[in-house]
Amino acid sequence: MKDSLTSPQPHTVEESKEPNSSRRFWLKRLWGGGLVVLGYLLSPLSWWNDLFFNLPFAYGLGYVASYISPKIFLPAAIAGYWLSNIAGILLMQLGIGEVLQNKTQERNLKKELLAGVASSTLYSLAILGLIYFHILETPNLGLENPAFSLNALLSFGSDR
Fold first, then answer.
1. Residue 143 has pLDDT above 60, yes or no
2. How far apart are CA 134 and CA 131, in angstroms?
3. For 8, how many CA atoms within 13 A lie in the half-sphere containing its CB?
4. Concatenated DSSP letters for 13-82?
5. Letter string b/e over residues 115-141, b meaning 16 or more CB atoms within 10 A of that residue's CB
6. Of 73, 90, 127, 160, which residue is 20 to 30 A from 45 by alpha carbon distance?
7. Per the domain annotation, does 45 fall within a domain?
8. Where, by residue number, does the polypeptide cross the bilayer (predicted)?
9. Would you say residue 120 lies in a domain?
10. Residue 60 forms part of a structural domain
11. Residue 87 domain-assigned?
12. Residue 137, SS3?
């Protein structure tokens, strides 16, 4: 019988792939962490993100859309603001999936995106409901003034 300490043992497949597997594992975690941070910066979970990320993006989208028609500046800016918040929630969801998923298994990106858009939309509707029923108060922006007319801002078909 040969001594197991003196005779070379063949390496198993798992042992030979361990350095690459470990490196891939940490790169995946780093990538997922980066997605979480970027998503947090865009999401409505951070109170200061609007000034630095969401409003400039929304204004830029509205500005570009205003080249098509000046009347669509505000709707495009609102859509850009909503999209930046949705993108933040989706990026956080994808990043957390990368960080917490231990095994390399097939992921259904379409299913994950649909779930993210659905949960983000439900979040938006919940916030609107809280504001509508005065559970969540908003700052007084002077919108209660009778001189303010939402129709004047969103006059798509009229000649202002």
1. no
2. 5
3. 2
4. HHHHHHHHHHHHHHHHHHHHHHHHHHHHHHSTTSTTHIIIIIHHHHHHHHHHHTTT-GGGHHHHHHHHHH
5. ebeeebeebeeeeeeeeeeeeeeeeee
6. 73
7. yes
8. 30-48, 72-92, 113-135
9. yes
10. yes
11. yes
12. coil
In which residue are the tokens 């409505």 written?
A: 44
CB neighbours of 89 closer than 8 A, spacing ≥ 6?
A: 39, 43, 44, 116, 119, 120, 123
How many distinct structural domains can be found in the chain? Answer: 1
- Tell me which amino acid residue 19 is: P
pTM exceeds cut of 0.90: no
Question: Which residues touch 58 (CB under 8 Å, ≥6 apart)?
Answer: 77, 78, 80, 81, 84
- Judged against a pLDDT cut of 90, whether residue 128 lies above it is answered with no
- Give the domain extent around 28: 22-101+108-140
Residue listed under structure tokens 């097939």? 106
Q: Determine phi and psi for 148, rounding to 5 degrees.
A: -80, 130
- Collect all residues with Cβ–Cβ distance below 8 Å to 28 and sequence separation of at least 6: 98
Q: The dihedral of CA 144, 146, 147, 150: what is its sign?
A: positive
